[in-house]
Amino acid sequence: xxxxxxxxxxxxxxxxxxxxxxxxxxxxxxxxxxxxxxxxxxxxxxxxxxxxxxxxxxxxxxxxxxxxxxxxxxxxxxxxxxxxxxxxxxxxxxxxxxxxxxxxxxxxxxxxxxxxxxxxxxxxxxxxxxxxxxxxxxxxxxxxxxxxxxxxxxxxxxxxxxxxxxxxxxxxxxxxxxxxxxxxxxxxxxxxxxxxxxxxxxxxxxxxxxxxxxxxxxxxxxxxxxxxxxxxxxxxxxxxxxxxxxxxxxxxxxxxxxxxxxxxxxxxxxxxxxxxxxxxxxxxxx
Length: 286
Description:
Number of domains: 1
Mean pLDDT: 85
Strand order of the largest sheet: 8-9-10-11-2-1-14-13-12
Largest sheet: 9 strands, antiparallel
Low-confidence stretches: 1-44
Distance between the termini: 46 Å
Structural class: alpha+beta
């Protein structure tokens, strides 16, 4: 769009500009809209929340304050699922509440918690309650991006993601950026039931991840056969980005990255980094 091109011209080294502009947003680290959301990080009542360290796909450009949280995955009988942390009770600041938390996930040394996903209002979604009645399998989105033509042709919304649908992951391409980097799908996680908000996810099977996982303890623990996933909510204004989903990504040299069309935030799906932010509390349990 012309307005976006004026705001973030490619030739102006947008990354340098953004670094100065988003300093205060990074301090708040809540990834939600408006000044009121900064207050909500410190004043909103609820269970859990607070300073949180998570593993995320790295934000490399644009106004987003940090990366989007990764979801550890595993394969069960040819079907792909996201791993949910262990459910337990903890006491913090004089309050006892239920959390989902796994210390040293699969001996990686990383503490994995449901607080990774508590931002952008998602902390209120029923599917993210620690003890929610969900089976953790990823299910195909009923409305994938038009550029994911394979998904529209071969799957139906709500079906569990199947490993054999990604057999061509080493050669797949859709004329956006470089081919052979992996094959994506738009999916939902912990979102079964008519009264449960949809938690959007991108699933990718990639030879790049397969290779990196051989020398990285965290990726070895959190990926499976080249499959990885992340919560697909931009940490800037909570839009839904895409990987190889928008031809417009080429304007910002992001055709091989995760690109958010709303405000041109860019993420590297093959760079998983540690990030710290203020997780918003879940609503009080009645």
